[in-house]
Structure to design on (368 residues):
């Protein structure tokens, strides 16, 4: 069901040029403003089953848009089903301390690349100690519930790996966590500072302050099985800073939205911000162009998927799904079974008048 208020409504009430935004951020926010409006034109579809005609405005397809991620998430999750291994999976979250927020705002690509690198090197080191090569799926989130800057990496790690002889080792540990959280925290901190120094970040005061506090590494209990892994991944992949369902009211000057207060046992509360402040916070989470926010490492990397992973699954007698991933993206909203076929397109002036009649149907289209 479509939300009554949307992020786009807030953006349309905000003068973007009054904010200190770079060109990429302004371009992204304008795309979200225009998503599924006449500004982007549209298309006319007819169902090949019932003949129902539907008129739709084009979407912006921007990865930061709350309205354009649903089918991408479903397709990605279905593709990951082919990569599952018969073992326990763990969820680990690595968080950057707030002392690094200023650097993350001014050099996001460097800071977030370093986050991916340091986290993988941390897990890789722990895997080497256990004499196995691990794998990891990592997903970058940069936001807190109130849209504050809170960079952290969600990692899904299989509880098994491949030893030096290429043999599968199913279970690295028998307890409820993959590795010691305190130990991972110390290694993660050292690895990240090492990455900063390699990138010529030589602020001695800043670097020294990073060693005065413990870094947050959060580990959850293992999943019940592969099906639970896929369902859980669906919560984190292709997420944006805030969903439309959380926005409760938008006026010319302010916006009210829900958030979870984790300091109060996750109670849902409401907060109100000026539209300009909401937009400023939202813009903090616009990633640099072409930045990859979902990455695969080790035995789940693209290199392994070119044959090694398939051979390992065959050895372990894992059945890979053969069917192509399908989504409801092109299904008819009327009969729910037919497929929509585009029969006309239109620009900013709107759809042709002949398609504006109520309850209109067309002859069932055929594909030549």
């Amino acid at each position: 069901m479509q939300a009554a208020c949307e992020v786009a409504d807030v953006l349309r009430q905000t003068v973007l040029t009054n904010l200190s935004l770079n060109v990429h951020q302004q371009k992204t926010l304008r795309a979200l403003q225009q998503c599924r409006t006449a500004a982007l034109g549209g298309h006319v579809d007819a169902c090949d089953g019932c003949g129902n005609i539907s008129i739709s405005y084009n979407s912006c397809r921007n990865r930061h848009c709350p309205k354009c991620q649903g089918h991408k998430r479903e397709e990605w999750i279905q593709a990951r089903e082919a990569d599952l291994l018969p073992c326990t999976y763990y969820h680990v979250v690595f968080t950057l301390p707030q002392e690094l927020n200023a650097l993350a705002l001014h050099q996001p690509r460097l800071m977030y690349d370093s986050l991916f690198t340091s986290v993988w090197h941390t897990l890789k080191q722990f895997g080497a100690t256990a004499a196995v090569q691990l794998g990891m799926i990592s997903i970058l989130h940069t936001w807190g519930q109130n849209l504050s800057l809170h960079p952290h990496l969600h990692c899904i790690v299989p509880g098994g790996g491949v030893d030096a002889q290429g043999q599968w080792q199913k279970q690295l540990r028998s307890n409820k966590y993959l590795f010691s959280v305190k130990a991972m925290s110390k290694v993660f901190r050292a690895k990240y500072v090492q990455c900063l120094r390699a990138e010529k970040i030589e602020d001695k005061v800043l670097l020294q302050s990073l060693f005065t506090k413990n870094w947050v590494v959060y580990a959850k209990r293992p999943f019940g099985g592969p099906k639970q892994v896929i369902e859980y991944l669906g919560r984190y992949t292709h997420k944006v800073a805030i969903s439309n369902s959380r926005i409760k009211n938008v006026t010319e000057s302010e916006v009210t939205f829900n958030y979870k207060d984790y300091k109060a046992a996750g109670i849902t509360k409401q907060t109100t911000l000026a539209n300009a402040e909401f937009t400023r916070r939202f813009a903090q989470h616009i990633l640099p162009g072409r930045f990859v926010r979902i990455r695969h490492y080790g035995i789940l990397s693209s290199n392994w998927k070119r044959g090694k992973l398939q051979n390992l699954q065959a050895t372990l007698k894992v059945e890979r799904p053969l069917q192509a991933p399908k989504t409801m993206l092109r299904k008819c909203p009327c009969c729910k079974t037919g497929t929509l076929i585009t029969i006309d397109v239109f620009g900013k002036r709107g759809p042709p008048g002949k398609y504006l009649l109520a309850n209109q149907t067309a002859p069932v289209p055929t594909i030549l």
Observations:
- The radius of gyration is 24 Å.
- The first strand starts at residue 42 and ends at 47.
- Residues 80-241+290-315 form one domain.
- The chain has a mean pLDDT of 90.
